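quick one if you have a minute, typing this from the bus. theres a chain ive been looking at and ive put its sequence and its fold in token form underneath. please have a look and point out which stretches look like helix strand or loop to you. anything you notice is useful, everything is just below.

***
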Amino acid sequence: MTPDNHPVAADRLTLADPDTPFAVVDVHRTRRNIGRLAARADRLGVALRPHVKTAKSLDVAALLHEGAKPCPVTVSTLAEAEAFAGGGYTDITYAVGIDPHKLPRVLALSRRGVTLRVLLDSTEQAEFVAEASRRAGIPVPAQIEIDCDGHRGGLRPDAPELPGIGRVLHEAGCLDGVLTHAGESYFAPTAEEQRLAALNERDSALAAAGRLRSAGLPVATVSVGSTPTAHAARDLTGVTELRAGNYVFFDLVMAGLGVCELDDLALSVVVTVIGHRPEYGWIVTDGGWMAMSRDRGTAAQAQDQGYGLVADLSGNLLPGLVMTAASQEHGTLTAREGVPLPELSIGTRLRILPNHACATAAQHRGYHVVDGSRPAGGALAVAGFWNRVSGGGW
């Protein structure tokens, strides 16, 4: 049986077989995307610490270090950290601000031989991390989050409390370094703006590290990264590691920014046509926001892609056809102005390319795997099924 309990033999399964909607990953494109950023990190002379929150899959993560020792990774939840630790990953950064009730799980991973770095941006957090470390006799490595662009948490590089926080951590043996994330780069529409975002990201991290060092504090790690800035950075002198996550799959937001091409998108969702509303110019599918997510990240871009672009089962885009509306289990496809609505009979299967790969992937328990490098005249053969890691607290 396949993961959908479909009776078709696994070696004969194609995208025309499993029940829809389901997520598909093109392993050829995924490998190509991974290789592109790995080569760039090598040229820039920095270590790469991929963020595994996008795919949440040990199978996908294995492509990051094929045949070698598991690489350093970044996670967004402790459940991810625990799942990847169970898969052999021992160098993990938990890149969301820490709070006291999560520290027992952090320490439990430390006792298993996992180096799990935590993130903080306040004296209060530094003090409870330091105290918990002293009580346990296990220093918890901590990074101070730096706000480089007014996005979410973090301290500005010139924040007066920065050296004091560093000292609290250092005296408990916990100070590891600084970390920043150029979240506003997702709204930088040109290559030049993305380059400047990468430069600001680097300079902000280095300025914060410099202030800590001037106060006599050690800074082992200077960590930067987002998918746009990782691909735009030209000089990372002084930075020790680069983080990115979305790049393994890419999505329409990244394509809209010019970070990738549509041909690089490795994740899609297969849906089935279940109805027509010709009076409204609609084609209705069985893939709503439960399959695609609510993310409308391209709405702020020059080209609004609705909830996703539409392709056939071989991955060929259907010109001008867009998923423009979604309810829980229904998707609505319409044609752009001046483009005739194609005739797609009930039962026709389609692939939807998502706005936000991370959010779309989160709607599914795993991925049917295809290899887009293999010539195909119709529905691609399914090479296997990759599970997403599970656990409480996503």
